Amino acid sequence: MTTTVWIILAGALATYLTRIGGHLVLSRFPVIHPRVEAALNAVPPAVLTTIVAPSLVYAGPAETATLVIAAIAALYLPPLGMFAVGWAAILALRAIIG
Amino acid sequence: MANPTHAVPDLRAEFWAGARSPFAPMVAAAPFGALFGALAVDNGFSVGEAVLMSATVFAGASQMVGIELFGQNVAPWLIVFSIFAVNFRHVLYSAVLGRRMGHMSTWQRSVAFFFLLDPHFAESERRAESGKKLTFAWMIGGGLTWWISWIIVTFIGALFGRLVPNPEALGIDFLLPVYFLSLVMAFRKRPNWVPVVLASGLASIAAYHFVGSPWHVSIGAIAGVLTGAALGEPAKARVLAP
């Protein structure tokens, strides 16, 4: 099997562990400590922010402007609408700024 | 097998009621499944590998993170760890839903938990909240519908991705950052969202500059999670769905 397939299967196992692990581990405790819950709640936005943040600074002026426009659009539009605005923005801005 | 002490629910009706439950969110999610397929191929996956990932990992955001890091030639263990980190939120879902699934057998729970997508969790929790019993048939009906459609749209997207010779010209290469931004913004109602995003954003940019990719992911995420833990939960509200 290729490395890619191994990465996929290991990622699948890791994902399944998160899906069953909460029930197996956290359900043994009657109450989830507020700090644990706050930390768990912070995980998805924290991880996803790190993926997008460098693009905001290092990808180029058209890319930076696109992310700013898309972020503002997200305040008013559902995800697909925001996504369409972002797509239109990167096409237009690359054509203008390069 | 089925619990004999309960009145036998109409399994078929339960299954189809579950199968119908994801219709609206699926219309919204389908384009992203196709996008995953197209970008996976763009980042070096084969069509089969893209479909395999959708069928086994079955968690959109983490699949996107996986192919993004894969395209940057990041070490395999770090890709797997990043997938794990993005999916770590499921721990809360399964802890919460597990309490509604006490009537199921161990193997039924083991199967049902595989399908725990964010929207499927939200629908399941809503059904349980409304006083209906959360049956295995209902959960599998919804889960299988999601699973099969996710695989189909991935396949379509991957085929389409192979047909696009120059993704940059269509702006497709920058759709991933826009997609991740949409997810970050979708979480904005969560407690401590602003400080968490600021902390992880600034830490990841600094780490990207001084340490280099891919360490900005781990370093930034740790900064954000520590910030979240330090601030704690302002109210007892259990905020789960994005």
Structure in words:
The complex is a heterodimer of chains A (98) and B (242). With 98 residues, chain A is an all-alpha fold. Helix content of chain A is 84%, strand content 0%. Chain A starts with a helix and ends with a helix. The model of chain A has no long low-confidence stretch (mean pLDDT 90). Chain B is mainly α. Chain B has 12 helices and no strands. Chain B is globular.
Q: Percent helix among the residues of chain A?
A: over 70%
Instruction: Report mean pLDDT of chain A, rounded to a whole number.
Output: 90
Helix-strand topology string of chain B: HHHHHHHHHHHH
The low-confidence parts of chain A are none
Strand content of chain A: under 5%
Structural class of chain B: mainly alpha
Write the layout of secondary structure elements.
The complex is a heterodimer of chains A (98) and B (242).
Chain A: H1 3-25, H2 34-58, H3 61-76, H4 79-96
Helix pairs in contact in A: 2-3, 3-4
Chain B: H1 11-20, H2 23-42, H3 47-56, H4 60-71, H5 76-86, H6 90-98, H7 106-114, H8 118-129, H9 136-163, H10 175-186, H11 193-210, H12 215-231
